[in-house]
């Protein structure tokens, strides 16, 4: 959950950049400003969740390789990692609608568990998401809220003229 802090922080940074870029266009009407903020939020958040979904199979394979002992006959660690990653992708594709963001999200919320059977071990090893399903859903929702908050608080002054944004104390002396 520490990552939530970074969504707010990156939101502030991205919003500040948007403000600097949009400064010459002041005042920006509120509807286009909100639509622009929404697009930027969707792009940033979408990229982060896409990376999480994409990296899940290989991250799990790396973690599970440390647990699997002994390795199956004739298989190297690299082969086992590739097999686990492919197993995760196949399970997401076959049971949850794809191995992308949608399938990954469905899996986390619906089942949050994959059992990978290893011939040299009595019990299967289990692939799990980074958090329990409801914590994950809460984290995803809060990340969108915090990112939106950070970006919007910095970009919102674009709806006013520069004079209103800086206040009377900073007006040029005549």
Explain what the structure shows.
With 174 residues, the protein is mainly alpha-helical. It is built from six helices and two strands; from the N terminus they run ααααββαα. It has a two-stranded antiparallel sheet. The model has no long low-confidence stretch (mean pLDDT 90).
Q: What fraction of the residues are assigned to beta strands by DSSP? A: under 5%
For this structure, the quaternary state is single chain
Annotation, overall tally of beta strands = 2
The coarse overall form would be elongated
Overall mean pLDDT = 90
Low-confidence stretches: none
Largest sheet: 2 strands, antiparallel
Helices and strands, in N-to-C order?
HHHHEEHH
Amino- and carboxy-terminal Cα gap: 52 Å
Count of helix runs: 6
**Could you estimate the helical fraction of the residues in percent?**
55-70%
Content-based structural category: mainly alpha
Strand order of the largest sheet: 1-2
Task: Determine Rg (CA atoms, Å).
Answer: 23 Å
